[in-house]
Amino acid sequence: MINSHNFSLDKKDIDTILVLDFGSQYTQLIARRIRELNVFSIILPWDCSVEKIAEINPKGVILSGGPQSVTKSNTPRVPEIIFELNVPVLGICYGMQTLAEQFGGQVSSSKNKEFGHAQILLEKSSLLFDGLSSGSLIDVWMSHGDNVSTLPDEFNLIASTSSSPIAAMEHDLKPIYALQFHPEVTHTKNGNVILENFSFNICKCKAQWKIENLIEQRMLDIKEKVGDQKVLLGLSGGVDSSVTAMLLDRSIGKNLICVFVDNGLLRKNEAEDVEKLFKEEMDLNLLVVDAKKVFYRHLKGISDPEQKRKIIGRTFIDIFDNEAAKLKDDVNFLAQGTIYPDVIESSGSESNEAKVIKSHHNVGGLPSDMKMELVEPLRDLFKDEVRKMGSELGLPLDMLNRHPFPGPGLGVRILGEISQEKVSILQSADAIFIEELIKADLYDQVSQAFCAFLPIKSVGVVGDERRYADVIAIRAVETVDFMTATWARLPHDFLAHVSNRIVNELENVSRVVYDISSKPPATIEWE
């Protein structure tokens, strides 16, 4: 029986796998896959302090891939503390290459670079491949320009491909393993078996990381930190802030004050839906602020996307601060729906050469003179874990499984200057598209879908009349991690039906186009 106190936000006393990040786009996916096995995982940059690694006391370490080349000087290496811990190590892609080099093997630039599907031959039995037959071929996903050309001393070959003779290796005496391919991506068949083998058979981890235990502990954490004081939360209606609201409500009840700011850039009927769900059905202490006119006034004449983002963000903070100041009760705590990817992406590496990916608004943009103390009960959870927690807390599944919506809202889906009329047109077009996706059972098959309002007009004919009106683009993508995405191959008949509905029902629209750009080179959003 696991004591829920082991799941405290600040200190956990459960079996943990450390994922050492060398800059791979798949690092978070590795950690998520481990957590899906009910084993806790944590990500740290490759050059983090020895003290941080020792404090975690991991049962095993996974070395991620990365964009650098081991063949070049001054590139990342595995810190010595990892080997001094005497725990199992699994190197993936770059992680394999630096292991090979550090143990005396050779790494070379590949003549035949591998990006995409490949087949590995399992050369010999290994605890890492337990349950997979030696001599069999396994479909895997490769992404590398270098490969291990000479095995280090005391390492054995355990898998190969036609273009990578050393595709996997293991140490003779120590529990050190390495793979050139990516077991964490869904394209690798049996990748989950490999990660299970590493976590349970090799690291001897126990499956202790469970959401139901987590909720109980987070409620205790919140009560202990907040006591009987007031907490203010900016509720957006998105998954993260909604789950934060429910968790806080369960913990401190009416001492939670939620502020929902209607900026006029939301999805159709969003403000009404949020008020109905949280105020009427969930009985939360919710204050709704109608600030549409203020946002429209501040955005008048602004076309540059970055300027629009900054104005929307600044205006929100001003309004939120103003509402907080109006509250008669002294509010000592500010709650935020910060989640683990926000923390990872904002922390960056500790080396001088490393670059921070982005400064997330929830972790990098708080005023230095802020009087309130932060409460962030989700900051160690991935999005799928947040959704599971939301379900346990009673939030409706259709809300939890909604597609992502940008912080600036429709402000970055209306290209060019924003007006109330354009917002209304886009809201209606987007509602039609989403409604039809749900009807056709396509909504859950795509990762994100929306409409964008283009800054051009087009000639159309409706009945016998010529119409010179606006153009709407529809966008749908499929992705695992939102770092790369492919455009969704929606059925042509479906697209024709959506286009007909939008043009026939919205007299201000004369044409609908479908965006067939993938990421990269395009981004998912248009601005």
Provide a brief overview of the structure.
The protein is built from 15 helices and 18 strands. With 527 residues, it is an alpha/beta fold. The protein folds into 3 domains: 13-202, Class I glutamine amidotransferase (GATase) domain (Rossmann fold), CATH 3.40.50; 211-400, Rossmann fold, CATH 3.40.50; 419-514, GMP Synthetase, Chain A, domain 3.
Characteristics:
15 helices, GMP Synthetase, Chain A, domain 3, Rossmann fold, disordered N terminus, nine-stranded mixed beta sheet, alpha/beta, 527 residues, 18 strands, five-stranded parallel beta sheet
Sheet-strand content, in percent, reads: 15-25%
CATH C-level category of the largest domain: Alpha Beta
Specify Rg, calculated over alpha carbons.
26 Å
Uncertain spans: 1-5, 349-368
Please identify which CATH superfamily of the largest domain we are dealing with.
Class I glutamine amidotransferase (GATase) domain
Secondary-structure-derived class: alpha/beta
Counted up, domains total 3
Helix content: 25-40%
Summarize the topology.
Elements: E1 16-21, H1 27-36, E2 40-45, H2 50-56, E3 60-63, H3 80-84, E4 89-92, H4 94-102, E5 106-122, E6 137-150, E7 155-160, E8 168-171, E9 176-179, H5 191-202, H6 211-226, E10 230-234, H7 239-252, E11 256-262, H8 270-281, E12 286-290, H9 292-299, H10 305-326, E13 331-335, H11 340-347, E14 373-375, H12 383-392, H13 397-400, H14 420-439, E15 448-462, E16 465-478, E17 486-487, H15 492-505, E18 509-514
Parallel strand pairs: 1-2, 1-3, 3-4, 4-9, 10-11, 10-13, 11-12, 13-14, 16-18
Antiparallel strand pairs: 5-6, 5-7, 7-8, 8-9, 15-16, 16-17
